[in-house]
Each structure stands twice: as structure tokens, then as C-alpha cells.
Amino acid sequence: MATTAATPLLEEHVIDAVDHRGLAAGRSNTGRWNAAWFIIGVEVAERFAYYGIASNLISYLTGPLGQSTAVAAANVNAWSGISSILPVLGAFVADAFLGRYRTIIIASLIYVLGMSLLTLSALLVPSTSESTNVTTSMLNLLFFFSLYLVAIGQSGHKPCVQAFGADQFDEKDTKEKRDRSSFFNWWYLSMSAGICLAIVVVVYIQEAVGWALGFGIPCVFMVISLVLFVLGRRSYRYSKSRQGKETNPFTRIGRVFLVAFKNRRLSQVQTELEANPSQGSQEKLRFLNKALLAPHASTEEDNVCSVSDVEDATALVGLIPVWLTTLGYALPYAQYMTFFTKQGATLERTIFPGVKIPSASLQVLIGIAIVLFVPIYDRVLVPISRSITKDPCGITTLKRIGTGMVLATLTMVVAALVESKRIQTAKEYGLIDEAETTVPMSIWWLVPQYLMLGLADVLTLVGMQEFFYSQVPTELRSIGLALYLSALGVGSLLSSLLVSVIDLVTGGDAGNSWFNSNLNRAHLDYFYWLLAVISAVGLSVFLFVSKSYIYRRVDGV
């Protein structure tokens, strides 16, 4: 009787997790959806703040700051890229030193400071008649300093909040593991709702009322995000460090490469990993198995790495080809905040007499597509595919990513065709040299490319989040999500580089640049066709790489 009564008590606690007091986390009163919704709410507020800046940033740069289209697009892509790459550093600090909770708190404070200074810089922008070279330089310095301070704040916030949210589900419990897969879908849906709100409300305020208020409102939401996060402290599950030697995970995994290199000349013997290939050791990475060998069968047992360490190192190396091929998706993804917005600014945007929508507001269609499609995917398509494939997630994450990459390639094709139509319409009405005149073509022509990109996001971006989170060692899951973000960041930087090089080669505004500030003389359609080709090539390589990828056994695949 005593044994029977004691069994439920053991099942009430989650292995490898503690509560806010450092005690074993109870399954019934910590984590799961109650804690996850708190964290999702934090992300909604943070995304509202971020996109309150990002969605219309190109209009601010070409408007009050007076930059050309090509320079402004390059600046937006550079900032967006660095904002997405820096989370690798923030995730490193979290996983190696501070932990996710503390990193989120510190990053949020930096985030709020950056947004406060951004609001101040918008307040100080003088009218054209009052501006001088000195004041313009100082304001530009303050603006870009505060903008990149926001990027630094996001570097700790973005990867850690989502990893912390996914940590609320125990992967060793069948039901909670299934809930964790749904978490990524609902996370992205809720996040998109925050983005939609920012695009509809903040962008309108920026253009109709003023930029200072338009930057100030997101700052307030970031403060709300921080307060909300702290309020949920008692309900969270916190990851527990490995038992035994408290080794930094980066040191632990880095040691595998060092020991394998030292043992490179030793004769290979069958290791536990090779004897059990189902555990996930990839044939191409057998070199790392030499970290399991003791030189000359000596007493140097302390220099031998464990099987789990070698598995973790192998898993990280195996992610590199997948990460590289997702850049083919990141390039098209980088366009919606820059050239899609500038395209819309040239078109007829009147929806009611006297009511003209900002061109950046069309980005809300991406969010609408996500909000509509995620429930269909999670509640209809996944159960159907689960019954066919017997996979708990319906289809594998790599198949999900690849399907989205197909859609992204088609999005660029559609965008190129619509832009060709826009240029042709401008020629027919003699508006080639009338840059400020509205082209008599409805902005609704851009709807398909926005909706298609939204559907691609649901498949590829959510798939990347779940893939990189689940395929890295448990202690490095902030790094896993940072890898997904860094792919988007590198894509933005590559887009920025591509724009700068093409603009230089085609002569800039003085020549026939593809990115002439007068878009009627530009050739965005050529650029979109180029991106379609690059995306298609990336997709082909991705399909080749994904066929040979072996999922980590910890996820039960």
C-alpha cells in the first residue's frame, strides 16, 4: 500500500526542472499552458514594439531622414540582419552564464532604453528649414545608436523567451511533447496578432499623427511586456543543470572536437555509437567518435568524452548544412519590409473617399494569413497527416520547411509579374518621369504576394523554430532558436549586400539602377526574378541535404 501511494508523488514532479524557489517543479502547478500563455503574452507585446519600428522604418529613413531608396533599403536590411544575428550572442550568454530568465530581464531593460532614445530622436527632428549639417549628423547618430540598442535588447529577449516558453512542456511526457509541437504553432499565431496590431495602429499613427508618438507607443508596450513577464514568475519551470560536474555546455561540446583532433591518428575501433547507429551518429561524422578513445589504453580516462557529448557535438555539426540552405528562404523573406512597401507607396491606396491606407499597412495581410492558417494547420491538417504518417507532428519539420520554401519561390515569381504590370501601367499613362504621381493601379494587386508569404511563414519559419529548438542539446536550446533567427539575419545582410552591389553596377539614381528612387524607372521586377532563381537553387540544395539528415534520438524520431 505504501508503494502504491508513493508512486503518484514521484509522477507529480518534472525531471530536470525546478520552480522559482529552486525546488523540484510540480507537474500540476508549474509549466504547461498556464505558464506558456503568460510567456506568449510577453512575446505579443514585444513583437508589437519591434514591428512598431521595423514595419515602416524605410518610410522614416526616406522621409524625415532624407535617404535614397537604395540606401534606406540597405540600412533596413542591415539593421534587420544584425538584429537577427545578435541573438546568437544573447543565447550564448543565457545558456553559458545567466540562464534564460535573467537574460530576458536584462535584455528587456536595454530594449526599453533603446526605444526611449528612439522616441527622443524623433521628437528632436527639426523642420527642413531649421536643419543644418551638424544637427542632422547628431540626430542621425542618436537615431542609429538607439536603433542598434534595440537590436542588442532583442538579442537576449528573442531567443530566450521562446525557448523559455517551450521549456514549460516536458518532452519526456507524451501529452506534453505533443502540446509543445502545438505551442510553436500558437506562439507564431499570437505573435502575428501582435504584429498585425502594430502594423494597423502604429503605422497609421506614424504617418497621420507623428513619428514621436508612433515610436513612443511601442516603448510603452515593451514596458508592459517586462511587467507581464515578471508577474508570471511563480508559475514557470526553470531548467535544471546537469548533475555531477557543472560543465559549461560550450566547454563540454568544444572538448569533443579538441579530443577528437588529438586522437586523429589513433586506429578506429568500434564505439558504442557505431554499434548502435539508431542513436544518431552520422556516418560522415565518425571522426568525432575518436573523442571516445583513450590514447594507448592509458590511464587518461579523464580525457575521454562521454557518448552523449559526442552525440551532441555530432548533432550540432549536422545542423550546419540545413542552416545554410535555409538562406534561400531568408532572401525573399527580407523584401516585405522594404521593396514591397515602396511598391505600395506608388499605387492607388484610397479605400474610402478621403481615407488612404499607408503602404506599410499591407504587411498586416501576412499576419492575417498566419492567424487564419495556423488553426487550420494545427487542428485539421496535422491530425489528418498524423493518421497517415504516424508522426506525432503530422509531417517532419524538414518537410514542413521545404514546403514553405516552395511557396517563397512562387511568391517572388508573383511579385515580379505584379511589378512588371505596375511599370507597364506607368508607361501607358506617361508617368515614367512622374515619381510623385500615383500610378492608376490599385494597391490590392499586391495582396497575393503578401498572403503567399504569410502561408510560407507558417510552414517554414514555424518549422525552423521547432527544428532548431529540438535538434540541439537541451542546455543549448536558446542557441537553437538563435540559429533560426540568424538565418533570417544573414539573409537580410545578403539582401543588403546584393542591393548595394546591383545598385552600384547599374549606375545608381544617375543611371538605370534597378533601385532608382523613381521606382517607375527602376527594375524591381528583375530583382524579384533574380531572388526567385536564388530561392529555387536553395530549395534544390535543401532537398538534397534533408534526405540524409538524421534526427536526434532525444526527440524520439
Automatic annotation (TrEMBL):
GO terms for molecular function: dipeptide transmembrane transporter activity; low-affinity nitrate transmembrane transporter activity; tripeptide transmembrane transporter activity. The keyword Transmembrane helix applies. It is found in: Membrane. Keywords: Membrane, Phosphoprotein, Transmembrane, Transmembrane helix, Transport. Belongs to the major facilitator superfamily. Proton-dependent oligopeptide transporter (POT/PTR) (TC 2.A.17) family. Pfam families: PTR2 (PF00854). The gene is LOC108817913. This is Protein NRT1/ PTR FAMILY 5.13-like isoform X1. The chain crosses the membrane at residues 78-98, 105-125, 137-153, 186-205, 211-232, 316-337, 357-377, 398-418, 450-469, 481-506, 526-545. Its main location: membrane. It is a multi-pass membrane protein. The keyword Metal-binding does not apply. CDD domains: MFS_NPF5. One of its GO terms (cellular component) is plant-type vacuole membrane. It comes from the Eukaryota. SUPFAM superfamilies: MFS general substrate transporter.
